[in-house]
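Two proteins were folded this term; both appear here.
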Amino acid sequence: MCLGVTQSTRSRGQLPRHAVLSSAVSTLAFTLPGSVRYSIHTKSASAYGTRAPSLLPLGAPAPHSLRLTPAATLRDSLSGSLCSSTTSLIRCSARMDLRGRAVLGVNRLRVLMLFYTMARIMAEQEVENLSGLSTNPEKDIFVVRENGTTCLMAEFAAKFIVPYDVWASNYVDLITEQADISLTRGAEVKGRCGHNESELQVFWVDRAYALKMLFVKESHNTSNGPEATWRLSKVQFVYDSSEKTHFKEAISAGKHTANSHHLSALVTPAGKSYECQAQQTISLASSDPQKTVTMILSAVHIQPFDIISDFVFSEEHKCPVDEREQLEETLPLILGLILGLVIVVTLVIYHLHHKMTANQVQIPRDRSQYKHMG
């Protein structure tokens, strides 16, 4: 006769009235019709620590701590061996009690993981749309915060040029039109921050349009040692060509997704923000066959990592286009300053020379005046 211990509390019910109970020195078993032998399991070793188990009367409800299991399949869960008739009841029960504690520890770990996941989800929702503070009506401002600290800031104006097909007037040929879709104010925004990966998602026009931007931070070995940079690694634009504001009678109207391929844009040294007032274009391959969506960014100021102060960008890293335009703007001024300096120096030299020559004795050019000299 085998007797084991389990932690389960699911087996509730009554012992059949026609069950035949039998007991030995430290075992309790009964036999149901069909010659299937069952054992009664208890939950804790303490139940038998001081006294032997009492027999249940026929037809009495089984306690919630009891579970009926075929005796032929009872195993000691820790050792994996069958509990023989000579195995101590207290020892077997104690082993199963340890197993119960281990299961309880696993359950606690699962609860902690659940709370951690919920906290991460709540952190992702700490986002703000501050576009109303921008003096540029086309520029949007988005802020992502985690644990009350700003971890991502983005200011930019975005426009998407989306080609789509419509029927010609003869309803035989196809004509390709273009939809100009601008990111509007009041958009819904989501985001998340990480040590090496951050993400910004924007939805507008009742989620007919959605923009997702993924930023990554990487470390590279250079001649000057390891250097860390961050970049825009992926752009995804989802659009609904059945939306009537921008699409007029589009063929195959519906949801389409445009993605970037092997993107490496806005490359910036770690710890700095990226700033670029000039327009930048990014090509996106659409799920609509043979269509390429063009994304145009302007007035960009973004920092997805290493923000030190709330709502304050770190030192700016200018894009090459802005640096070139700034040089083109300042070059005439520099040349003008140099020219003015040359003129001033020339006038000073002339004045000094004239002053020095004025103090010298003038020799008369008329020889008739020589007799009056001396």
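Next, the second protein.
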Amino acid sequence: MAKLHFDGLADNDDEGSLDDFLDGVLALPVSTRIRTFSLKCNHVAKYDDHINRCLCEVMVFILQIKVIKEGYYSLPLEIFTCKTVEKMKLGSGFAIDFLPADALLPALKTLSLDSFQALVSWMVLSGKVGNGLGLCLVRPFKD
């Protein structure tokens, strides 16, 4: 299985190579299984759709994302229903704008968060390591 890594944080002018990396990922046959997908880069808004397609269309077992941006990069909803991700490491620079009602990561064994901004009022992470992770919204209790 392939390991795909892109670290554009060390290079100030990473736009061209980021474009090449993302195009290469999207050019892979649908049946390709990716052991590790690691993306570290400065945020470039014009690549958001490209990055989201890579995250959603490639079968990944280990997902590592760190995007440096003023504000936050919003993760695609499909990330929260991925059935193949076993290990997810999310660095700084991302946000959870919306959580789908069917959020479930059945294969997830490890979740590492450097920091995150959740734009939902209440969120509960539930599950045991090795048994998947369920995510759900909980409404605040009113007296």
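The chain has two helices and eleven strands. The longest helix spans residues 15-27. These notes refer to the second protein only.
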